[in-house]
Design brief:
Helices cover 42% and strands 0% of the residues. The protein is mainly α. Helix 2 packs across helix 6 and helix 4 packs across helix 6. The termini are far apart.
Length: 128
Amino acid sequence: MIKKRTLGLGTALALTLTVAAQAPAWAQDPAAGETVFRQCMACHTLQEGQNRVGPSLHGVFGRTSGAVEGFNYSDAMKNAGIVWDAETISAYLANPRDYIPGNRMTFAGIPDEQRRVDLIAYLEQATQ
């Protein structure tokens, strides 16, 4: 006969707190992301319809790569067919040249995952 064991509320709570205390480094901090965004501001704006060296990031989530009207994208970006979400933006920002070879973004990337997560959390709020 197999005995079923259940966790008491205290044990379950302790396990939950232990897991929470060991939260991954990718807990989101939009305020830190705003600081990271300062390095993006030389080329990008959050204002709709306002492009700089790079396209406006207003409404970037859910948008297809190469789709901001009035911005002169590289063929690589126009033909990439990527829909921007947290995952694709993170992969792109980790190493833009490798993620979309032939794109014109000269930025080397943000290799630190925590900084990317924070930036994306900020962009999710600021680009609506």
